[in-house]
Amino acid sequence: MILSKIRTAVVGLNMGLEHAHAYKLAERSELRWVVDLDEERAAKVAEELGCSYTTDWTSILDDVDAVSLCTPHHLHAPQALQAIAAGKHVLLEKPLANSEQDCMNVIRAAEAKNVTLMLAFVVRFLPAIRKLKEAVDSGQYGRPVSAQGWVEAYLNPVPGTWFASKEKLGGGVLFSHGCHYIDILLYLLGEPARVSHFGTRVGTEWMEGEGTSHGIIEFKSGALAHLVSSWGMKYKKTPAKFQLHMTEGMLELDNSMWKVLAVSKSGTETLYERPKEYPVRPGQNVLFEIEHFLESIATGRRPETDGHEILKSHRTIWAMYASLGVPVNL
Ligand SMILES: NC(=O)C1=CN([C@@H]2O[C@H](COP(=O)(O)OP(=O)(O)OC[C@H]3O[C@@H](n4cnc5c(N)ncnc54)[C@H](OP(=O)(O)O)[C@@H]3O)[C@@H](O)[C@H]2O)C=CC1
Ligand SMILES: O=C1CO[C@H](CO)[C@@H](O)[C@@H]1O
């Protein structure tokens, strides 16, 4: 079905604030509602963006075509199922759900209702990541040998919240934050073959899941990847976010995620840098994924980060957790 303007709503207004700004920027969307349990917050955002607000997201389903769910992880599956049952297209913040069974339930429900289900893996849609993919696939730099990624941050302790609960978060920092780079690694390097993982709570004892994670993936191609994810690195400032060493060169993503360098026998080349038309403004980073979601709805095409695609990277993480440092065959 081709809709002229897709009527949208955003539920949960912390990360969801970015979605709301992006829906406001996107031509295909008419942002109609913002929803948060905190009425004052919802009212403030609604006033800024010129839409309606409520604290009860289920009351607006008749008035929208699509909804972004930007709520705590343990609510993703039940809320997605409810929105899908009402025939709404869903852009779900990561993760899809905290268990494989819940993931499958959401995927099957969306297929049965013939609605678009997309996972909001914002990093995947950044132009720099597209450029990295193009460079890897071009063959110009040879074959992937070794990738290193760093997802290092410091999270102010929030004990007693859903973030601190392993059950509600669905794991630790790897599942909640490193997941972006597990997705990128699979996107760039293909099918994983074996994984291994260590996690620690040292320095992040306020949370039940691991606050620092070291994971290794061996790909079917033979390439290796090492990902460090952490919410406990108060003083670390990495110059690079991601490096991929190839047989004929090296590709590097900088910490802003808006610059890609290539090093090869012909020297160092900037493959991509943030252009002037992408100023830093609220909603800009997620605009690419929001536009992909709206286009998928309008055209009926499968979104790139649909449930099946994302379940592959969730399974990789679950296998890493199961490995406890010992390689586990996937
Ligand atoms: N891709 C990215 O870069 C990021 C993604 N995220 C993802 O976004 C999602 C939300 O995370 P985050 O924003 O950090 O979480 P927060 O807990 O900070 O914000 C969630 C918001 O949702 C509200 N909320 C909770 N339940 C409901 C409900 N039933 N109806 C309406 N509003 C509700 C909360 O209200 P209240 O506080 O009153 O409970 C809160 O304002 C997660 O899936 C997370 O993984 C988060 C950060 C970055
Ligand atoms: O990328 C991200 C940034 O950090 C958040 C936590 O503060 C994560 O949940 C999120 O996925």
Automatic annotation (TrEMBL):
<feature type="domain" description="Gfo/Idh/MocA-like oxidoreductase N-terminal">
    <location>
        <begin position="6"/>
        <end position="120"/>
    </location>
</feature>
<dbReference type="GO" id="GO:0033712">
    <property type="term" value="F:1,5-anhydro-D-fructose reductase (1,5-anhydro-D-mannitol-forming) activity"/>
</dbReference>
<dbReference type="InterPro" id="IPR055170">
    <property type="entry name" value="GFO_IDH_MocA-like_dom"/>
</dbReference>
<feature type="domain" description="GFO/IDH/MocA-like oxidoreductase">
    <location>
        <begin position="129"/>
        <end position="252"/>
    </location>
</feature>
<keyword id="KW-0560">Oxidoreductase</keyword>
<dbReference type="Pfam" id="PF22725">
    <property type="entry name" value="GFO_IDH_MocA_C3"/>
</dbReference>
<dbReference type="InterPro" id="IPR000683">
    <property type="entry name" value="Gfo/Idh/MocA-like_OxRdtase_N"/>
</dbReference>
<dbReference type="GO" id="GO:0000166">
    <property type="term" value="F:nucleotide binding"/>
</dbReference>
<dbReference type="InterPro" id="IPR051450">
    <property type="entry name" value="Gfo/Idh/MocA_Oxidoreductases"/>
</dbReference>
<protein>
    <submittedName>
        <fullName>1,5-anhydro-D-fructose reductase</fullName>
        <ecNumber>1.1.1.292</ecNumber>
    </submittedName>
</protein>
<dbReference type="Pfam" id="PF01408">
    <property type="entry name" value="GFO_IDH_MocA"/>
</dbReference>
